[in-house]
Amino acid sequence: MAVRAVTIDFWGTLLYDGPGSDNRYKRRRLADFASILTEAGVEVSAAALDRAYEQSASTLGRIWMQNRDVPVEQHVRAILDQVDPRLAGGLAPERLGALVRAYADPALAVPPTVDDGALGALQALAARGLTLAVVSNIMRSPGSTLRKILAHYRLLPYFSVLTFSDECRIRKPDPEIFRLTLRETGIDVEEAVHVGDDPTLDVAGAHAAGMRAIQVTSGASRAKGTLKPEATIPRLAGLPEALARLDGGG
Q1: Which of 109, 140, 159 marks a domain boundary?
Q2: 59 CB burial (10 A radius; 0-12, 13-18, 19+)
Q3: Domain limits at 231?
Q4: What is residue 183's predicted lDDT score, i.e. its pLDDT?
Q5: End of a domain among 109, 143, 171?
Q6: Structure confidence at residue 21 (pLDDT)
Q7: What is the pLDDT of residue 240?
Q8: Quick one: which of 19, 20, 137, 165 has the fewest CB in 10 Å?
Q9: Are residues 130 and 94 located together in one domain of the fold?
Q10: Alpha helices in 84-203 (DSSP H)
Q11: Are residues 12 and 117 in the same domain?
């Protein structure tokens, strides 16, 4: 069946950096946390904040293992709870808001690296009249920040739908995150292809939703999945040609 819609992953696909690179912003986040808490009259050592940040990963991991997600305010509360379970409740709303911004925004100062073929690929697909969407899990940076990064690289206008796990509360590989995205586009799963780098989250997830999948293989550490994609490409520059082959046009 002819392809009418293409959904694309963020980390490791549109952005060359993989999801683990989001942790590079940890130092900036924690330095800002310390300043905000000090202004609120709460002194927390750098070591205690570091431990709390790492321990919050266990809290998030338990949620993520169920293919579910939460807003980043809950990330911040998870960190604060590790410092003192009473801390978040004792902060004024504006202080908590400042902490959420300090947690969410560092990637805007030093954005992750974009795939230099992404813009050209999106332009080519849009010229064919394809509907384009983002389907992506977040790590520590929320969907609101990832939108701004896409805008920074002039990619945002090409997407009619953007689905991030913290906003819909569902994580890949749950097929529902793909299905709800396609419901917004009005296009059937049989007419859609998902593009991503992870064999489980992207390939297996898309297949479970009834979609075809193209795997980006630029991440050398990515293991081969048991469910094979319909096509593989090293970078997004190869996407227009790969889609043409799926459509029988090349």
Answers
A1: 109
A2: middle
A3: 5-18+112-246
A4: 98
A5: 109
A6: 78
A7: 98
A8: 20
A9: no
A10: 87-90, 93-104, 106-109, 118-127, 143-152, 165-168, 175-185
A11: yes
Angle, to 10 degrees, between the axis of helix 26-39 and the axis of helix 46-64?
Answer: 120
Tokens coding 178: 């793909």
Domain match, 80 and 187 both: no
68 lies in the same domain as 164: no
- 191-235 residue pLDDT tens: 999 999 999 999 999 999 999 999 999 764 455 556 799 999 999
Instruction: Copy the structure tokens of residue 57.
Output: 């990963």
- Rounded Cα distance between 131 and 167, Å, is 21
Adjacent-strand bridge partners of 194 = 7, 213
- pLDDT over 90 at 89, yes or no: yes
pLDDT (mean) for 41-50 = 96
Q: CA separation (Å) from 144 to 67, 74, 119, 140? A: 20, 15, 20, 11
State the pLDDT at residue 179: 99
Q: Are residues 32 and 103 in the same domain?
A: yes
- Residues forming a β-bridge with 232: 215
What's 158's domain CATH number? 3.40.50.1000
